[in-house]
Amino acid sequence: MVEMAMASITIFSFLFGIVGFVFKIWIINPLSTAIENLQKTVDALAKTINREQERTTDLKIKFAEIDQRAKSAHNRIDEVGERLLLVENKCNNCSCKDK
After folding, report:
1. CA gap 66, 79 in Å, rounded
2. Taking the model in full, what pTM does it have?
3. Which residues, at least 6 apart from 91, have a Cβ–Cβ distance to it below 8 Å?
4. Is it the case that residue 99 has pLDDT exceeding 70?
5. Is-contact 91 97, C-beta < 8 A?
6. How wide is the angle at C-alpha 24 spanned by C-alphas 23 and 29, nearest 5°?
7. What is the four-CA torsion angle of 16, 22, 28, 30, rounded to 10 degrees?
């Protein structure tokens, strides 16, 4: 009876080991491979996102510089326009033109 129980336990352990091995080969290994590939994809995506964030930051800085230059140019144009009006007014009021 004890020998029969020991034999049953041995056979059960052997079968359980085979089922575990098959489970590992058919299920665990493909899942591990899929997880590794997914991790590589996520890492690549994170790098791409970081590069794009850096590029966006650089573009924002350049845009701010260009915007500042445009404002400065508009101020200079306004100043030149005001000077031109002043000169035109002086010329219109000039007594030299009557000669």
Report:
1. 20
2. 0.57
3. 97
4. no
5. yes
6. 125
7. -170
